[in-house]
Design brief:
The chain is mainly alpha-helical and 153 residues long. It contains three helices and two strands.
Amino acid sequence: MKHPNRHPAVLNATAVEVHHPTPLAPVPTAPLLPVQPGGIPAVASVVLPDGRVVTGYAIEPAKPDRVTAQPPVSRAAVNIALGGVGFLAVCGGLFLLTAFITALTALITQLVILAAVIFGGWVAVQVFSASGHRGGTTVNIRKAVIKRSHFHG
């Protein structure tokens, strides 16, 4: 007799072995609880001069972490290096001052020599231009006599 729920092709099929996966044991986990990031800040209210009230959270500025690491170079070494640089700057300044004073002295000396040469040349021109009258001082006697007679006359 025929079974009502079976198909004729299924009756001749061989038995199929079915494998079911076995579930793994659950991993114990802590219950998840919501956590606030650092706490709830206090609510601040400010009364404006016109009577309105402004309410809000006060926000504090983020403070940077303090650096506790030592600098790669010691402070004594930095101070010594800065002192050396300052000493070299002072020595260079004194050298430049000395060079400036030496150059100024040379300039003044050359100006004095130039003035002496110019004055000496002027004196030489005066002496040699007056010597064209056979040397000595030329006196106009006629004018002197006129002046004398004018004063005594």
